[in-house]
């Protein structure tokens, strides 16, 4: 006497094992549920071998450690990227010190000499004539114009002209 296959008459019961609700990775709880289910429904005449059981536990342990390492690497990468951005921003800001910059101030473009740099909220802010200027609003950096004081004599400037340096009066 042959036994025919049994199919479910309930379409909801058939769909309960669809992959639509599964996540991409199995967690620790899912692994242990699968292991317990496997042990519960194993054939008592042919139980799971100790080697198989130990191999599955070792696989789970390896997977768990790899997941922890991956999470630590992601945190470390994010931290390094943040640090690199901060260092680069500070280097760019300090390169502006003493130079004349042009920057957006609302709709207009202003200019002024960078007097100092402050770190606010982990980001550098340029101080131009007492005003705070965000580094991202800088559109140009120009070398400062030479300052001529009254103490220097005209003979010094003549010497500069003779060496090929043009000085506008």
The protein's oligomeric status is single chain
- Which radius of gyration do the C-alpha atoms yield? 36 Å
Task: Give the helix level as a range of percent.
Answer: 40-55%
Major sheet, described briefly? 5 strands, antiparallel
The stretches of 5 or more residues where confidence is low (pLDDT under 50) are 1-23, 158-169
Average pLDDT metric: 76
Class from helix and strand fractions? alpha+beta
Count of separate DSSP helical elements: 4
CATH C-level class of the domain at 96-142 is Mainly Beta
Instruction: Report the sheet-strand fraction.
Output: 15-25%
Using the 3D structure, state the CATH architecture of the domain at 96-142.
Roll
What is the topology?
Layout: H1 11-15, H2 28-40, H3 50-95, E1 100-105, E2 108-120, E3 123-128, E4 131-134, E5 138-142, H4 154-162
Antiparallel strand pairs: 1-2, 1-5, 2-3, 3-4
Explain how this protein is built.
This protein has a domain at 96-142: Roll (SH3 type barrels). The longest helix is centred in the middle third of the chain and has 46 residues, at 50-95. The protein has a five-stranded antiparallel beta sheet. By secondary structure, it is an alpha+beta fold. Mean pLDDT is 76; it is low at 1-23 and 158-169. It has helices spanning 11-15, 28-40, 50-95, 154-162; strands at residues 100-105, 108-120, 123-128, 131-134, 138-142. Strand 1 and strand 2 (108-120) form a beta hairpin.
């Amino acid at each position: 006497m042959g036994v025919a296959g049994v199919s479910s008459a309930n379409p909801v019961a058939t769909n309960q094992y669809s992959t639509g609700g599964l996540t991409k990775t199995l967690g620790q709880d899912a692994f242990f549920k699968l292991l317990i289910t496997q042990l519960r429904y194993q054939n008592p005449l042919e139980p799971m071998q100790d080697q198989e059981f130990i191999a599955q536990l070792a696989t789970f342990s390896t997977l768990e450690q790899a997941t922890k390492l991956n999470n630590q690497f992601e945190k470390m990468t994010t931290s390094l990227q943040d640090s690199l951005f901060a260092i680069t921003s500070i280097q760019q800001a300090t390169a502006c010190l003493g130079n004349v910059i042009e920057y957006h101030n609302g709709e207009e473009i202003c200019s002024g000499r960078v007097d100092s740099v402050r770190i606010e909220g982990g980001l550098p802010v340029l101080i131009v004539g007492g005003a705070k200027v965000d580094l991202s609003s800088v559109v140009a950096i120009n070398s400062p114009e030479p300052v001529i004081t009254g103490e220097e004599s005209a003979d010094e400037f003549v010497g500069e002209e003779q060496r090929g340096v043009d000085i506008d009066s």
